[in-house]
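In this section we walk through a basic example: taking a raw amino acid sequence and producing a predicted 3D structure, encoded as discrete structure tokens. The instruction is simple. Fold the sequence below.
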Amino acid sequence: MSDEATYPGERVKAYDVTTRRDTDYYAVFADIPDADRAVWERAKGYVDEVGDRMVAAWDAAEYPLDLATRLGELDLLNDGIDHPDLTLFSPLAAGLVNMEVSRGDGSLGTVIAVQGGLALRTLALFGSPEQQAQWLRPLARAEVLGSFALTEPDHGSDSVSLETVARREGDEWVIRGTKKWIGNGASGGITFVWARVDDPDAPEHGAVRCFLVEQSTPGYTGTVITGKASLRGIFQAHIVFDDVRVPADAVLPGTRSFKDASTVLYSTRSGVAWSALGHATACYEASLAYSQQRIQFGKPLARFQMVQERLTQMLEELTAMQLYCRWMADLESAGALKPTQASLAKYHNTRAARRIAAAARDLLGGNGILLENRVMQHMADIEAIHTYEGTESVQALLIGRDITGMSAFA
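The resulting token sequence is shown next.
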């Protein structure tokens, strides 16, 4: 906040609304173990280190790959994956990393979701020993960028109906099809491609399997999707597989059906709930700071009853989001978390984050649309996480099936 007043009518040139406040009204995170707190502090340091660059990158729709690599250098991409070759984070520590990085920037939060939550997890769960020996550590360190290619232009929520096919020809698989919205899909790294086996003479005909494809393989064309108004600091790709030939051992041996892809998605939904919490925290803290600094009608906005009520409503929702995430992490640590419980956390938290962001944008008035105040950026990025890893409607149907015992999927 500046007290310089070069001309009448501009007492304050800028507002300090991005400083971290560590809001925790119910002390939800007061008792976390020292090891988890150390990981959280490392994530905070990363956000402070790269924050200004990411504001500019989001504005310019640029993807600074060195900042993705920096996440790997700091060992922040493991996302709670349990593997002997990876540093093991507790579910709470993994969640706090997702939360903190998303509080700083949603595009970087999505890097964690794609590189760690999807690509690294797929390899760790289903890859052969040889595949893991070659690629696991490079992915964890972001020396190689990875992507998870499931969604297709014609198949989003109904991704179980995917049409990309892989047929066997001698010692090779030949992949043909398209994918869309694939983070890191045009990064020059590797892609985990989910495809349906097209071989009428094989017992696995029609089964969905996953293939490790290097993006330099002939026939692989990844085109960056432009014109995005959300997550502008990471590239998503439209991918065409024009008879891409890969060796027989490119298939991940642990993948046998679409349920294996679902296993990965279930595991990442908790991360999305934490990411939503990070976005919402940034928006609430910006609102609180602004209300204390912005003078209207001769007094700070925070002195107005309507503003205090709005802040209270935002804090109410934010605290509920924190409680969802903390209890979800505790359930996961105990091995008791059901996939639909993670779905409920995502369902609640992305919806609540949207409401908090909208209230923050409104409370900041015209200043709410300035990127320097970050609220509009978070508001836009929340729209993406509200959709990916399963839309609101899909989550509701998964939860509804669990509580009623009846499927309403078409």
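Looking at the output, two observations stand out. The radius of gyration is 22 Å. The CA atoms of residues 75 and 141 lie 7 Å apart. In the next section we compare this with other chains.
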